[in-house]
Design brief:
Strand order of the largest sheet: 3-2-1-4-5-6-7
Largest sheet: 7 strands, parallel
Radius of gyration: 16 Å
Strand content: 5-15%
Shape: globular
Distance between the termini: 34 Å
Length: 224
Amino acid sequence: MPTILISGANRGIGLELARQFAADGWKVLGTARDPDGAGDLKALGASVLPLQVTEQTSIDALAQTLANEPIDVLIANAGIAINLAAKPAEVTRADFLKVVATNTFAPLALAAAIKPNLLAGQMRIATAMSSLMSSISANDWATQYTYRASKTGLNAVWSALALEWAPLGITCALLRPGMVATQMTDFKGIDVRDSVAGMKGVVEQLTPADAGRIIGYDGTDVPW
């Protein structure tokens, strides 16, 4: 069966992704900042690997651990949101940079580090978690400055990656989980199982023609 690497797989959307792919027979590699505290992930039979996505040394160590391990699919899922309701004057440089480091730079750094693994895999799919908040054309209610910027930046990064890696046979696309009832949303929104089931279906049907798309859990595209 195929192998999938999921970052931030110890809770929320990441844990449910691990659960559903594992249940379907996939080999699941899941990362967590604290592997010892990832009991639910371990219970799924997943291989739990340490990763702090904002630290390059941690990413490099993960790549070394995974050397010569073919990976079919990457889901760069780890992400954060800080003070979503902050007014412009309340947005701090420290918060802004922390969110961008986690949501924008880290997925690119992780993908770059495991590029050899993706090339060794058969499916060769690299995905990350975008959001409707990333859309400039659909923004008609303002707010969420740091989170929006981080996800819009991710869109730009991933679209460039899609163009650069397409000749290598790696399909880079973005996923939109929707507003899911997790810790990040104070458990308001759609059931995580429904969101993940939809995204799993999207991932399994991706082809090179989908490179550069932002695809929702419901199969619809997110506008730029």
